[in-house]
Amino acid sequence: MSSTPEQAPTVVDDTSVTRQQWKWSALAGMASYLDAGSIVALGAGLALCQEYLNVSNGAVGTLAAIGPNALGCAVGAIFGGWLGDKLGRKFIYQYDLMVYAVGILFIALAVNTSMLFVGTLIVGIAVGIDAPTSLALVGELAPAKARGKLLGFTQVAWCLRPVIVLWLAVVLAPLGWLGIRIIFLHLFVVAVVTWAMRRGLTESVRWKAASQAAGSAGNKIMLLFSGANLRAMIWTATIYLFWNLAAGTAGIFNPYFIKKLNAGSQAASVGLASAGFIIAMVVTVTVFMRFSDRSFRARKTLWGIGAVMQIVAYSLFLFLPFTIPTIIMNILLFSAGGALAGEGFYKRYSARSFFRLYCAARRKGSPSVSRGPFSASGVSLCRCWRVQVSERWLVC
User: Fold this and answer.
1) How would you class 54 by CB atoms within 10 Å of its CB: exposed for 0-12, middle for 13-18, buried for 19 or more?
2) Would you state the torsion angle of the CA atoms of residues 242, 248, 251, 252, taken in this order, to the nearest 10 degrees?
3) Which residues make Cβ contacts (< 8 Å) with residue 46, sequence separation at least 6?
4) Which residues contact 280 (CB under 8 A, 6 or more apart)?
C-alpha cells in the first residue's frame, strides 16, 4: 500500500495488455465497484429504511433520484469531468474517495431522514466525480486494439460489487436495518483502502502531454458542441439515457419491487437481483471482452443481439403476471443483453467516437498531440488519443 508513485506505462497500438495496465485499470475500475456498491446497497435497504426511519413512498423515490444512480452522480460528473481535465487525474484521486467515505458514513450512521438524504447526495456527487476520471484513465492506458477488453474489465468490477453487497444483505437480513448499516460500513472500509492504494498512481502521461496544448476554454467547448463531437455526444447520450432508465430501475428497485409486490421474500428478492449481475459478469468476460475489439462488424452484431434481448426482457412485464418465473426471465434476458449492448458498449463507443478538444500548435521538429474530450456535461466518460511523432501516427 505504498504511496510512492509508479512509472506510468507506455501505451502503443497493440493487442497485448501488460501486468501494470491490468493493475492500474483495476484501481481505476474501483470507481465502478464503489459506484455499483452504493446503488445496490441503497436498493437492498430501501424497504428496511422505509420501515425503520419512517420514510414515505414519495421520499423513497426522491432518495433514489438524488443518489449515485441519478441526479447526484450527474452533478458530480459535470464538475468532475472538468476538474479531471483541468487539474489532472491524480488531483481527483487524492480527494474524491474521502468525500465518498464521508457520505457513506452519513448513511451508515443515519438516525433520521436528513442524515440519510445528505449522505446519499454526497455519495452520488462523489461517484459522479470519480467515475469519469477513472474511466478516462483506463482509456488512456489501454492499447487501441485492447480498449474494449480493459473497459469491459471495469464492467466486471461494476458487476462484482453488487453481488457481494446483495449476498451480504441476504446473510445480514435477520439483523434488519443494522445489517444494512454494516453493509454501508464495509463500503466505507473499501473506499479508504482503495484511496490509499491509488496514492501510488502517477499522473497520466497522456494527460500531461495534452495539458500543454494550446487553446482557450471557449474554443474547447465550441469543439465539443460542433461537428463530429456533437454528433457523437448526442448518440452516446441517447444510448445511455434510455438504456439507463431500465438499468437504473432494475439496479435500485428490483429487490424493492419483488418484496413489496409479494413476489418473494427479502432474501429471495436480493438473491434474484444478484443473479442478474452474475449473468452480466459472465457474459462480459466470455463474450464482450473477447469480441468487442475485433471489428466494427463484431461490435454491431453484439449491439443488435443485446438490444433485442433487453427489449424482450421488459416486454414480458406487459403481457405476463409479475411472478418469480417472469422476474427470472426478465433478469436473464436484460442482464445478458446489457452486457452486450449496455454500459460496456457505451464506454467502448465513447472511447472511439470523440475526437480532440485540444490541439498542440505544430512546430517543425516537435511532436503534435491531440487529446480526446471529456464532455463538460459529463456525458463522455472516455477519451481517445492520437499522438503524431515525425510522420508516424500511433493510435492509442
Assistant:
1) exposed
2) -150
3) 60, 63, 64, 252, 253, 255, 256
4) 155, 159, 335, 336, 338, 339, 342
Residue that is written with C-alpha cell 418469480 in the block: 324
Report the distance separating Cα 283 and Cα 250, nearest Å. 18
Which helix (H) or strand (E) element contains residue 394?
A: strand 392-395
In this predicted structure, what is the pLDDT of residue 351?
64
Residue type, 341: A
Please state, in angstroms and rounded to a whole number, the distance separating the CA atoms of residues 326 and 292: 30
CB of 382 closer than 8 Å to CB of 350: yes
Q: Please give the helix or strand (H or E) that residue 393 lies within, else none.
A: strand 392-395
- Distance (Å, rounded) from C-alpha 152 to C-alpha 145? 13
Q: Residue for cell digits 476520471?
A: 133
Per-residue pLDDT, 264: 64
Residue 114 confidence (pLDDT): 92
Residue whose C-alpha is closest to residue 142's, from 30, 31, 283, 24: 24
Q: Would you state the pLDDT for residue 368? A: 31
Residue 182, pLDDT score: 94
The pLDDT of residue 395:
31
151: nearest Cα among 362, 387, 345: 345
* Residue 323, phi-psi category: left (phi > 0), alpha (psi -120 to 50), beta (remainder): beta
**Angstrom distance (rounded) from CA 384 to CA 350:** 8
C-alpha–C-alpha distance, residues 46 and 30, integer Å: 24
276 CB-near residues (< 8 Å, 6+ apart): 250, 254, 331, 332, 334, 335
DSSP state string for 302-353: HHHHHHHHHHHHHHHHHHS-SSHHHHHHHHHHHHHHHHHSSHHHHHHHHHHH
* Sign of the torsion formed by the C-alpha atoms of 72, 73, 74 and 75: positive
Query: Which candidate, 131, 130, 118, 132, places its Cα nearest to that of 66?
Result: 118
pLDDT of residue 365: 32
- pLDDT beneath 70: ranges in the chain: 1-15, 212-221, 251-252, 260-267, 270, 351-396
Query: Angle at CA 152, nearest 5°, toward 149 and 153?
Result: 85
Taking each helix axis as running N to C, give the angle between helix 89-108 and helix 177-198, from 0 to 180 degrees, rounded to the nearest 10. 160
Cα angle for residues 346, 349, 353 (degrees, 5° grid):
135
DSSP H or E stretch at residue 89: helix 89-108
pLDDT of residue 216: 53
